[in-house]
Amino acid sequence: MAADRPVTLLDKSEVLTGLFSVWDDLDGLLDGLSEKDWETASALRGWDVKAVVSHIIGTESFLQGVSAPEPDIDVKALEHVRNDIGVMNECWVRHLSAESGSQVLQRFREVTATRRKVLEGMSEDEWNAVSFTPAGPDSYGRFMRIRVFDCWMHEQDIRIGLRRPSSDEDLQGSALRLSLDEVATSMGFVVGKLAKAPEGSRVLFELTGPHSREIRVSVDGRAQVVDDFGGPGPTATIRVDALQFTRLAGGRPLCPARSQDVEFDGDKELAGQVVQRMNFVI
């Protein structure tokens, strides 16, 4: 990797605990759903609950070296398919659409059981080795933290669709914390590249609710996440519920069961510009 992009080294046990907990939560959420529930629209445009789970199955299958099935239509022509990754996702969604919800759940259980064994058996060297990730070349461990974020976000997509949103107790586990860790790494890109914050800007994200935290981005030549601003206060502050922060980052509709207030302090125009451009997920 380039000298300015060091390898992200993450604790294997911590990340896998978060990933497996999301898979377990999804299993519990999906178990016993009626076929009507499986056909309920999720919070993701164009996908019902079955489609979201089919996508997760497809990604984990890809990570096992299984090629995407041939689609029955030109999926690139679908309005919600925007890139090559979207094409692969849609191939799996189309492929599994004819199966019952219980069959899709069984596939989910099988593929995640296989993936658990593979991940648990990885050596530290394999875990830390540089590989492809959706965020560019980085450690396999970083890829798996991205998988925590992706799977957890899809759990919320399903919950919102089914009107069974996560409670504060549900959000206390490590999955939201790891997801916030992952999202935080892109806030420099969001503030600098997407929102084009001017030189000297200091943007503070104040996250409330479960796993509340502060994320600081300073624009000094380039925008980057910093531990502190070195004395001066923020020029713009964005205050939002931690779960809703992830929804904004993923370009998703906000969860109606949680506070939808997004408060701005300081340079409110800049803060609003950042929020409008927060969606960095492919």
Query: What is the total domain count?
Result: 2
Q: CATH fold name of the largest domain, please? A: Four Helix Bundle (Hemerythrin (Met), subunit A)
What proportion of the residues form beta strands (DSSP E)? 5-15%
SS elements, strand count:
7
Percent helix among the residues? 40-55%
- In quaternary terms, these chains amount to single chain
What is the overall number of helices? Answer: 11
- Outline the low-pLDDT stretches: none
**Reported CATH architecture of the largest domain:** Up-down Bundle
Tell me, rounded to a whole number, the average pLDDT: 93
First CA to last CA: what distance? 22 Å
What is the H-and-E element order?
A: HHHHHHEEHHHEEEEHEH
The CATH class of the largest domain turns out to be: Mainly Alpha
CATH superfamily of the largest domain: dinb family like domain
Structural class: alpha+beta
Instruction: Give the overall shape, derived from the CA principal axes.
Output: globular
Record the strand order, biggest sheet.
5-4-3-6-7
Largest sheet: 5 strands, mixed
What labels would you give this structure?
globular, Nonspecific Lipid-transfer Protein, Chain A, five-stranded mixed beta sheet, 2 domains, alpha+beta, 7 strands, 282 residues, Four Helix Bundle (Hemerythrin (Met), subunit A)
Structure description:
The chain is of the alpha+beta class and 282 residues long. It folds into two domains: 12-162, Up-down Bundle (Four Helix Bundle (Hemerythrin (Met), subunit A)); 184-277, Nonspecific Lipid-transfer Protein, Chain A (2-Layer Sandwich), CATH 3.30.1050.10. Helices cover 48% and strands 12% of the residues. The chain contains eleven helices and seven strands. The protein has helices at residues 12-30, 35-38, 49-63, 84-96, 101-120, 124-128, 140-162, 174-184, 187-194, 242-249, 268-276; strands at residues 130-131, 138-139, 202-208, 213-220, 222-226, 236-241, 263-266. The strands form two sheets. A five-stranded mixed beta sheet has the order 5-4-3-6-7. Strands 1-2 form a two-stranded antiparallel sheet. A hairpin with a 1-residue loop joins strand 4 (213-220) and strand 5 (222-226). The mean pLDDT is 93.
